[in-house]
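Methods, example record. To illustrate the input and output format used throughout this study, we show the complete record for Side tail fiber protein. The sequence lines were provided to the predictor; the line carrying structure tokens was produced by it.
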Amino acid sequence: MARTNAAQTRQKPDKSELLTLRVRERRRLSPSFARVTVIGDDLARFSPLGRDQWFRLFLPVSEGSLLRLPNRLDTLAYFRYLAIAKTERPVLRNYTVAGFRPSGEHGPELDIDFVLHGSADEGTAGPAATWAETCRPGDAVAILDEGILFTPAAGLTGPYALVGDETALPAISGILASLPADATGTAMIEVPDAGDVRDLVAPAGVEVRWVVRVDPRETPGTSVRDAAIAEA
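The corresponding predicted structure is encoded as:
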């Protein structure tokens, strides 16, 4: 099997700059997932690329903390970001575009799906999951588009093998929806709860299989990895 360095083949956006947005709504998708929809005038400058398009997500830790962010995130700007005092430095995480509508009810809309590990009420969730459970309409957030990593050769129809745990679900979903109609292959996705299984848009020749993690103490991704190896 040929191996390709993702850093060499990734497709970067033509222009990547900080977009300051606000929450429109949040809702629970399933036992382990929440979706936050963000809007804002800056989304008019967002270029949807499909597939596994991802972005840097900046969550404010205090009033006005997003104003200290650089407009771009090159090496120098990243070091400047790290130099911000921890009490003022926005939380930085990477997320995949779960959905984009250029003409939503309130203008362009971007969906972000969060895996809910732990509980915000009990203080056992991480900062991103806590934000996803507690954010309110109008809350500020910022993103920086990073493009796509899944860049198969032109005309390739498969067979594809897509394997991941719940954190990879938005990326796998986006990839499946972007594959050519005659694509073939298998997608195997591990989720923590049977209630997290959902319908995905995929070519008829690509089989989608779900692996429900039985032991909550098991390292995420172990079950789907073992299932994929068993079928290799």
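Annotations derived from this record:
The two ends are 13 Å apart (CA to CA).
Strands lie at 19-30, 33-39, 54-59, 91-104, 107-115, 140-147, 160-164, 184-191, 205-212.
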